[in-house]
């Protein structure tokens, strides 16, 4: 283990600093204290914004190739330290080590992608309506960016926001979740080694998520805020950001449907269900929350899914062969227990799991014939629970899938190409997985519709969130 990546100081204006107070980072698999990091104040956050604001003009005017090369160097350092980053991530988030390794690659892919895209921030020329005029547009960095990231993907959610911001010439103040600050600070160490100038990338740690969020959302030196988290918090941040008309991009709550039609390859659907449901113990924004299975294949799918779920190994993510780690907190565990009890009380059949283990662990669970009135039908569980609902017709399945205020990810399985097009177009979601339970990559736009967010991360559209279009008109 590379001890230099266990950073216990915040990163502000090119320096690692201690705070007057600190808080502990807990391993959810063991309950042990991993480290203590600074519990910074609102005043510290305010001062950090000032540093980022002061650093912006110079970074904005730096040649695009220099910015691209610096971001690329950050990518190379992330890959070189993959094992250590994954171990830190597993210790503080609880996810299995194999998943953490995959996340490092996934997160690094955004850094590589935007290092390349930094050289392709194109404007356009416009045919002029008058002789002698010349009309064109250029794209310029928006300014100081506030990035607020969650605990469930402590590395990838950073790179999806920070890499495009830095690549196009913005400076960044990052506020990572208090459960997983060590991954963010390790990434700051690597960014420091990559050679970003002082003030360009900053990491503020602290327990006061509401206070820091308010400072980042209302400070008039912040021009853009990017947040991944709950719809409730996103709604509050959006209202606060409206005071200074900030540019915003939010990836919020999900309630992902997974439809299995009667013409599906059931075995493939089961594999997709396992991949899309149990990653990070079901604690992902695109995790499947509601399984809608057409009546003709319901029993077959339920039986095969139950068999597969019972084989999953639960335990400490650092142990060999573990596939399902702990919940992140006691609150998370209590929500899972509440949802399962409510579903069973309302008539659901318990086919597997249905009970907690010692600590923050919960047995992977399958519930069949869940009532539409159950809590799990309307709320995101964020845990290792498969809730199976029946439907009869294609129209009914689509209607059930769309019966939610959320619209982040959705999935379905069918071998009928015409049905694939019909269903994909009618599902109210920003992303649709067709015969797959995994859909995200750096080249694709990630984001939702309805109350699941605004804006897109990744792909060429990811840069749009951090730039403004400026129109230039040359007279005769």
Q: How many strands, which pairing sense, and closed or not: the largest β-sheet? A: 7 strands, mixed
Question: Which secondary-structure class do the elements indicate?
Answer: alpha/beta
CATH architecture of the largest domain: 3-Layer(aba) Sandwich
By CATH, the superfamily of the largest domain comes out as Aldehyde Dehydrogenase, Chain A, domain 1
**How many structurally independent domains?**
2
Q: Largest sheet, order of strands side by side?
A: 14-15-16-13-12-17-18
What oligomerization state is this entry in?
A: single chain
Radius of gyration: 23 Å
Give the overall shape, derived from the CA principal axes: globular
User: What is the CATH fold-level name of the largest domain?
Assistant: Aldehyde Dehydrogenase, Chain A, domain 1
The percent range for strand residues is 15-25%
How far do the termini sit from each other? 65 Å
Name of the CATH class of the largest domain: Alpha Beta
What is the arithmetic mean of pLDDT? 97
Number of helices: 15
Helix content: 25-40%
Number of strands: 20
Low-confidence parts, pLDDT < 50 over ≥5 residues?
none
Domain Aldehyde dehydrogenase: 21-471
Active site: 251
Protein name: Succinate semialdehyde dehydrogenase
Family: Belongs to the aldehyde dehydrogenase family.
How would you portray this structure in words?
The chain is 39% helix and 21% strand. The chain has 476 residues and is α/β, with parallel strands linked by helices. It has two domains: 3-252 and 452-475, 3-Layer(aba) Sandwich (Aldehyde Dehydrogenase, Chain A, domain 1); 256-434, Aldehyde Dehydrogenase, Chain A, domain 2, CATH 3.40.309.10. The strands form five sheets. The protein has a seven-stranded mixed beta sheet, sandwiched between helices. The protein is globular, with a radius of gyration of 23 Å. 53% of the residues are buried. This is Succinate semialdehyde dehydrogenase. Pfam families: Aldedh (PF00171). Residues 21-471 form the Aldehyde dehydrogenase domain. The active site is at residue 251.
